[in-house]
Amino acid sequence: MVTVPVEASPLEYTPAVERSTAVAYNRLKTVIPDIEWPVHAPYIAAINELKRELNAILLVHNYQTPEIFHGVADFAGDSLGLAQQAAKTDADIILLCGVRFMAETAKILSYEKTVLIPDLDAGCSLAASITGEDVRQLKKRHPGVPVVTYVNTYADVRAETDICCTSANAVQVVESLGVNRVIFLPDGYLGRYVEAQTDVELILWDGTCEVHERFSAEEIRDYRKAYPGIHVIAHPECSPDVLAEVDFVGSTSGMIKHVGESQPEKVIMITECSMSDNVAVEYPEIEFVRPCNLCPHMKRITLPKILHSLQNLEYEIKLDQNIAERATVSLQRMLEVGSN
Fold first, then answer.
1. Number of structural domains, the chain?
2. Across the chain, how many H-helices and E-strands are there?
3. Tell me, what's the pLDDT at 88?
4. Is the pTM of this model over 0.85?
Protein backbone atom coordinates (compact mmCIF):
# COMPACT_ATOMS: atom_id res chain seq x y z
CA MET A 1 0.00 0.00 0.00
CA VAL A 2 1.43 3.36 -1.07
CA THR A 3 0.87 6.25 1.29
CA VAL A 4 -0.24 9.42 -0.51
CA PRO A 5 0.26 12.68 1.46
CA VAL A 6 -2.72 15.01 1.57
CA GLU A 7 -0.90 17.60 -0.50
CA ALA A 8 0.26 15.09 -3.16
CA SER A 9 -0.65 15.28 -6.84
CA PRO A 10 -4.11 13.97 -7.79
CA LEU A 11 -4.47 10.24 -8.28
CA GLU A 12 -4.77 8.84 -11.79
CA TYR A 13 -8.17 8.36 -13.40
CA THR A 14 -7.81 4.94 -15.01
CA PRO A 15 -10.32 2.73 -16.83
CA ALA A 16 -10.41 0.51 -13.73
CA VAL A 17 -11.27 3.49 -11.55
CA GLU A 18 -13.93 4.57 -14.01
CA ARG A 19 -15.55 1.14 -13.87
CA SER A 20 -15.40 0.83 -10.08
CA THR A 21 -17.02 4.24 -9.56
CA ALA A 22 -19.60 4.06 -12.34
CA VAL A 23 -22.53 3.47 -9.99
CA ALA A 24 -21.58 6.44 -7.82
CA TYR A 25 -21.13 8.67 -10.84
CA ASN A 26 -24.53 7.71 -12.22
CA ARG A 27 -26.05 9.00 -8.98
CA LEU A 28 -23.94 12.13 -8.82
CA LYS A 29 -23.85 13.32 -12.41
CA THR A 30 -26.76 15.73 -11.86
CA VAL A 31 -24.85 17.63 -9.14
CA ILE A 32 -21.17 17.17 -10.05
CA PRO A 33 -19.90 18.53 -13.40
CA ASP A 34 -18.37 15.99 -15.78
CA ILE A 35 -15.04 17.79 -15.66
CA GLU A 36 -14.75 17.24 -11.89
CA TRP A 37 -15.40 13.51 -11.83
CA PRO A 38 -11.90 12.38 -12.94
CA VAL A 39 -10.55 14.28 -9.92
CA HIS A 40 -12.94 12.73 -7.38
CA ALA A 41 -13.24 9.18 -8.72
CA PRO A 42 -9.69 7.91 -8.00
CA TYR A 43 -10.00 8.94 -4.36
CA ILE A 44 -13.44 7.36 -4.06
CA ALA A 45 -12.09 4.10 -5.47
CA ALA A 46 -9.03 4.12 -3.20
CA ILE A 47 -11.01 4.98 -0.07
CA ASN A 48 -13.62 2.28 -0.65
CA GLU A 49 -10.91 -0.33 -1.23
CA LEU A 50 -8.98 0.69 1.87
CA LYS A 51 -12.13 0.61 4.03
CA ARG A 52 -12.55 -3.07 3.20
CA GLU A 53 -8.92 -3.85 4.01
CA LEU A 54 -9.05 -2.13 7.40
CA ASN A 55 -12.60 -3.11 8.41
CA ALA A 56 -13.33 0.58 8.67
CA ILE A 57 -16.68 2.35 8.47
CA LEU A 58 -17.24 5.92 7.31
CA LEU A 59 -19.96 7.90 9.06
CA VAL A 60 -20.82 10.96 6.95
CA HIS A 61 -22.88 13.95 8.01
CA ASN A 62 -25.51 15.55 5.77
CA TYR A 63 -23.38 18.70 5.38
CA GLN A 64 -20.53 16.93 3.59
CA THR A 65 -20.10 17.52 -0.14
CA PRO A 66 -21.86 15.11 -2.54
CA GLU A 67 -18.74 13.23 -3.64
CA ILE A 68 -18.17 12.30 0.01
CA PHE A 69 -21.81 11.86 1.01
CA HIS A 70 -22.74 9.62 -1.93
CA GLY A 71 -19.30 8.33 -2.88
CA VAL A 72 -17.71 6.85 0.25
CA ALA A 73 -20.25 6.83 3.10
CA ASP A 74 -21.21 3.58 4.80
CA PHE A 75 -23.78 5.48 6.78
CA ALA A 76 -24.90 9.04 6.10
CA GLY A 77 -27.30 11.15 8.11
CA ASP A 78 -27.81 13.63 10.92
CA SER A 79 -26.28 13.75 14.39
CA LEU A 80 -28.70 11.26 15.94
CA GLY A 81 -28.31 8.77 13.12
CA LEU A 82 -24.52 8.95 13.28
CA ALA A 83 -24.60 8.50 17.06
CA GLN A 84 -26.81 5.43 16.74
CA GLN A 85 -24.58 3.92 14.08
CA ALA A 86 -21.46 4.60 16.15
CA ALA A 87 -23.05 2.74 19.05
CA LYS A 88 -23.76 -0.45 17.12
CA THR A 89 -21.02 -0.79 14.50
CA ASP A 90 -18.73 -3.83 14.60
CA ALA A 91 -16.03 -2.13 12.53
CA ASP A 92 -12.53 -1.87 13.98
CA ILE A 93 -12.12 1.71 12.81
CA ILE A 94 -14.70 4.49 12.74
CA LEU A 95 -13.87 7.46 10.53
CA LEU A 96 -16.16 10.41 11.13
CA CYS A 97 -16.64 12.73 8.17
CA GLY A 98 -18.06 15.70 9.99
CA VAL A 99 -16.83 17.85 12.84
CA ARG A 100 -14.93 17.00 16.00
CA PHE A 101 -17.82 16.85 18.46
CA MET A 102 -19.38 14.15 16.25
CA ALA A 103 -16.16 12.15 16.33
CA GLU A 104 -16.14 12.52 20.12
CA THR A 105 -19.67 11.08 20.18
CA ALA A 106 -18.45 8.05 18.25
CA LYS A 107 -15.52 7.64 20.66
CA ILE A 108 -17.74 7.96 23.73
CA LEU A 109 -20.07 5.23 22.47
CA SER A 110 -17.28 2.97 21.14
CA TYR A 111 -14.45 3.79 23.50
CA GLU A 112 -12.45 0.66 22.69
CA LYS A 113 -12.46 1.34 18.95
CA THR A 114 -10.16 3.54 16.90
CA VAL A 115 -12.07 6.71 15.99
CA LEU A 116 -10.57 9.02 13.38
CA ILE A 117 -11.36 12.43 11.94
CA PRO A 118 -9.60 13.64 8.77
CA ASP A 119 -8.95 17.13 10.19
CA LEU A 120 -8.70 17.98 13.89
CA ASP A 121 -9.49 21.61 13.15
CA ALA A 122 -13.00 20.72 11.96
CA GLY A 123 -14.72 22.40 14.87
CA CYS A 124 -18.08 24.06 15.57
CA SER A 125 -19.08 27.52 16.77
CA LEU A 126 -21.74 26.01 19.04
CA ALA A 127 -19.35 23.54 20.62
CA ALA A 128 -16.81 26.30 21.15
CA SER A 129 -19.38 28.53 22.90
CA ILE A 130 -19.52 26.55 26.15
CA THR A 131 -17.28 24.51 28.47
CA GLY A 132 -17.79 21.98 31.21
CA GLU A 133 -16.98 24.69 33.77
CA ASP A 134 -19.75 26.87 32.32
CA VAL A 135 -22.22 24.04 32.91
CA ARG A 136 -21.02 23.52 36.47
CA GLN A 137 -21.58 27.20 37.21
CA LEU A 138 -25.08 27.07 35.71
CA LYS A 139 -25.95 24.08 37.89
CA LYS A 140 -24.79 26.00 40.98
CA ARG A 141 -27.05 28.92 40.05
CA HIS A 142 -30.00 26.63 39.35
CA PRO A 143 -29.70 23.71 41.80
CA GLY A 144 -31.81 20.70 41.02
CA VAL A 145 -32.73 21.85 37.50
CA PRO A 146 -31.88 19.13 34.95
CA VAL A 147 -29.54 19.94 32.09
CA VAL A 148 -30.40 19.09 28.49
CA THR A 149 -27.47 19.60 26.12
CA TYR A 150 -27.49 19.63 22.34
CA VAL A 151 -25.05 17.07 20.95
CA ASN A 152 -23.21 19.91 19.18
CA THR A 153 -20.92 20.13 22.21
CA TYR A 154 -17.66 18.59 23.36
CA ALA A 155 -17.31 15.68 25.75
CA ASP A 156 -16.49 17.77 28.84
CA VAL A 157 -19.85 19.55 28.49
CA ARG A 158 -21.78 16.34 27.98
CA ALA A 159 -20.09 14.88 31.05
CA GLU A 160 -21.87 17.56 33.12
CA THR A 161 -25.22 16.91 31.43
CA ASP A 162 -28.26 14.88 32.49
CA ILE A 163 -29.34 14.06 28.94
CA CYS A 164 -28.31 15.09 25.43
CA CYS A 165 -30.58 15.87 22.50
CA THR A 166 -30.47 16.57 18.79
CA SER A 167 -32.56 19.00 16.80
CA ALA A 168 -34.69 16.00 15.79
CA ASN A 169 -35.61 14.90 19.31
CA ALA A 170 -35.08 18.06 21.43
CA VAL A 171 -38.76 18.58 22.26
CA GLN A 172 -39.22 14.90 23.04
CA VAL A 173 -36.16 14.86 25.29
CA VAL A 174 -37.21 17.98 27.22
CA GLU A 175 -40.70 16.61 27.83
CA SER A 176 -39.36 13.17 28.78
CA LEU A 177 -37.94 14.64 32.00
CA GLY A 178 -41.39 15.44 33.41
CA VAL A 179 -40.30 18.73 35.02
CA ASN A 180 -41.34 22.37 34.72
CA ARG A 181 -37.86 23.91 34.22
CA VAL A 182 -34.86 22.74 32.23
CA ILE A 183 -31.43 24.19 31.50
CA PHE A 184 -31.12 23.90 27.70
CA LEU A 185 -27.67 24.29 26.14
CA PRO A 186 -26.03 25.78 24.14
CA ASP A 187 -28.01 26.91 21.05
CA GLY A 188 -30.22 29.84 22.00
CA TYR A 189 -32.22 29.80 18.76
CA LEU A 190 -32.91 26.08 18.99
CA GLY A 191 -33.86 26.59 22.62
CA ARG A 192 -36.38 29.29 21.72
CA TYR A 193 -37.88 27.01 19.08
CA VAL A 194 -38.16 24.13 21.57
CA GLU A 195 -39.67 26.40 24.23
CA ALA A 196 -42.40 27.42 21.78
CA GLN A 197 -43.32 23.74 21.30
CA THR A 198 -43.64 22.85 24.99
CA ASP A 199 -44.93 24.18 28.32
CA VAL A 200 -41.54 23.58 29.95
CA GLU A 201 -39.59 26.73 30.90
CA LEU A 202 -36.09 26.69 29.42
CA ILE A 203 -33.04 28.41 30.86
CA LEU A 204 -31.02 29.20 27.74
CA TRP A 205 -27.40 29.79 26.76
CA ASP A 206 -26.50 32.30 24.04
CA GLY A 207 -24.69 30.00 21.61
CA THR A 208 -25.34 30.08 17.86
CA CYS A 209 -24.44 28.20 14.70
CA GLU A 210 -22.32 30.44 12.49
CA VAL A 211 -24.03 29.04 9.38
CA HIS A 212 -27.67 29.29 10.41
CA GLU A 213 -27.37 32.65 12.17
CA ARG A 214 -26.39 34.29 8.85
CA PHE A 215 -29.85 33.77 7.34
CA SER A 216 -32.32 36.65 7.67
CA ALA A 217 -36.06 37.11 7.34
CA GLU A 218 -35.47 39.65 4.57
CA GLU A 219 -33.47 37.06 2.65
CA ILE A 220 -36.38 34.61 2.85
CA ARG A 221 -38.78 37.25 1.55
CA ASP A 222 -36.40 38.02 -1.31
CA TYR A 223 -36.32 34.34 -2.28
CA ARG A 224 -40.11 34.25 -2.39
CA LYS A 225 -40.14 37.27 -4.70
CA ALA A 226 -37.49 35.79 -6.97
CA TYR A 227 -39.06 32.31 -7.06
CA PRO A 228 -42.88 32.59 -6.80
CA GLY A 229 -44.47 29.53 -5.23
CA ILE A 230 -41.22 28.24 -3.75
CA HIS A 231 -41.50 25.99 -0.68
CA VAL A 232 -39.21 27.19 2.11
CA ILE A 233 -37.97 24.87 4.85
CA ALA A 234 -35.52 25.72 7.60
CA HIS A 235 -33.45 24.25 10.41
CA PRO A 236 -34.46 25.28 13.96
CA GLU A 237 -30.94 26.66 14.58
CA CYS A 238 -32.11 29.69 12.55
CA SER A 239 -33.37 32.80 14.31
CA PRO A 240 -37.07 33.11 15.28
CA ASP A 241 -37.71 35.82 12.67
CA VAL A 242 -36.42 33.48 9.96
CA LEU A 243 -38.53 30.58 11.20
CA ALA A 244 -41.60 32.82 11.14
CA GLU A 245 -41.14 33.26 7.37
CA VAL A 246 -40.86 29.60 6.34
CA ASP A 247 -43.30 26.82 5.48
CA PHE A 248 -41.70 24.03 7.51
CA VAL A 249 -39.17 23.78 10.35
CA GLY A 250 -37.29 20.57 11.02
CA SER A 251 -34.02 18.84 11.78
CA THR A 252 -31.82 17.75 8.90
CA SER A 253 -33.51 14.34 8.82
CA GLY A 254 -36.92 15.98 9.21
CA MET A 255 -36.25 18.32 6.31
CA ILE A 256 -35.24 15.44 4.05
CA LYS A 257 -38.34 13.45 5.01
CA HIS A 258 -40.53 16.50 4.41
CA VAL A 259 -39.16 17.02 0.90
CA GLY A 260 -39.88 13.41 0.04
CA GLU A 261 -43.41 13.52 1.42
CA SER A 262 -44.46 16.94 0.13
CA GLN A 263 -42.70 16.74 -3.27
CA PRO A 264 -42.70 20.51 -3.93
CA GLU A 265 -41.95 21.72 -7.45
CA LYS A 266 -39.38 24.19 -6.10
CA VAL A 267 -37.80 24.14 -2.67
CA ILE A 268 -35.16 26.02 -0.74
CA MET A 269 -33.53 24.47 2.32
CA ILE A 270 -32.41 27.13 4.80
CA THR A 271 -29.41 25.28 6.14
CA GLU A 272 -25.86 24.35 5.14
CA CYS A 273 -25.42 24.48 1.37
CA SER A 274 -24.20 20.94 0.65
CA MET A 275 -27.33 19.40 2.12
CA SER A 276 -29.36 20.70 -0.83
CA ASP A 277 -26.93 19.05 -3.24
CA ASN A 278 -27.16 15.73 -1.40
CA VAL A 279 -30.96 15.73 -1.26
CA ALA A 280 -31.20 16.83 -4.91
CA VAL A 281 -29.48 13.57 -5.89
CA GLU A 282 -32.45 11.68 -4.43
CA TYR A 283 -35.09 13.94 -6.02
CA PRO A 284 -33.88 15.03 -9.48
CA GLU A 285 -37.44 16.00 -10.45
CA ILE A 286 -37.53 18.77 -7.81
CA GLU A 287 -35.94 22.16 -8.48
CA PHE A 288 -33.63 23.07 -5.59
CA VAL A 289 -32.71 26.70 -5.07
CA ARG A 290 -29.43 26.68 -3.14
CA PRO A 291 -28.65 29.36 -0.55
CA CYS A 292 -24.91 28.86 -0.36
CA ASN A 293 -24.03 29.35 3.29
CA LEU A 294 -21.18 26.91 3.80
CA CYS A 295 -19.86 25.54 7.09
CA PRO A 296 -16.11 26.24 7.02
CA HIS A 297 -15.50 23.40 9.46
CA MET A 298 -17.39 20.76 7.48
CA LYS A 299 -15.56 21.87 4.35
CA ARG A 300 -12.21 21.02 5.95
CA ILE A 301 -13.10 17.38 5.22
CA THR A 302 -12.06 16.35 1.69
CA LEU A 303 -11.53 13.10 -0.18
CA PRO A 304 -7.70 13.44 -0.11
CA LYS A 305 -7.83 14.02 3.66
CA ILE A 306 -10.11 11.00 4.15
CA LEU A 307 -7.70 8.79 2.22
CA HIS A 308 -4.74 10.16 4.16
CA SER A 309 -6.60 9.53 7.42
CA LEU A 310 -7.21 5.87 6.58
CA GLN A 311 -3.69 5.29 5.27
CA ASN A 312 -2.01 6.77 8.33
CA LEU A 313 -4.72 6.21 10.97
CA GLU A 314 -4.82 9.96 11.59
CA TYR A 315 -6.19 11.82 13.40
CA GLU A 316 -7.26 9.68 16.33
CA ILE A 317 -9.79 11.00 18.81
CA LYS A 318 -8.68 10.38 22.38
CA LEU A 319 -10.71 11.23 25.47
CA ASP A 320 -10.11 11.02 29.19
CA GLN A 321 -11.81 7.83 30.30
CA ASN A 322 -13.59 9.46 33.25
CA ILE A 323 -15.06 12.18 31.04
CA ALA A 324 -16.03 9.61 28.41
CA GLU A 325 -17.78 7.41 30.97
CA ARG A 326 -19.76 10.34 32.38
CA ALA A 327 -20.63 11.61 28.92
CA THR A 328 -21.82 8.13 27.95
CA VAL A 329 -24.69 8.37 30.43
CA SER A 330 -26.20 11.48 28.84
CA LEU A 331 -25.78 10.08 25.34
CA GLN A 332 -27.30 6.71 26.20
CA ARG A 333 -30.30 8.46 27.75
CA MET A 334 -30.71 10.43 24.52
CA LEU A 335 -30.53 7.30 22.39
CA GLU A 336 -33.18 5.65 24.53
CA VAL A 337 -35.53 8.58 24.01
CA GLY A 338 -34.57 9.04 20.35
CA SER A 339 -35.24 5.43 19.47
CA ASN A 340 -38.72 5.32 21.00
1. 3
2. 17, 12
3. 86
4. yes
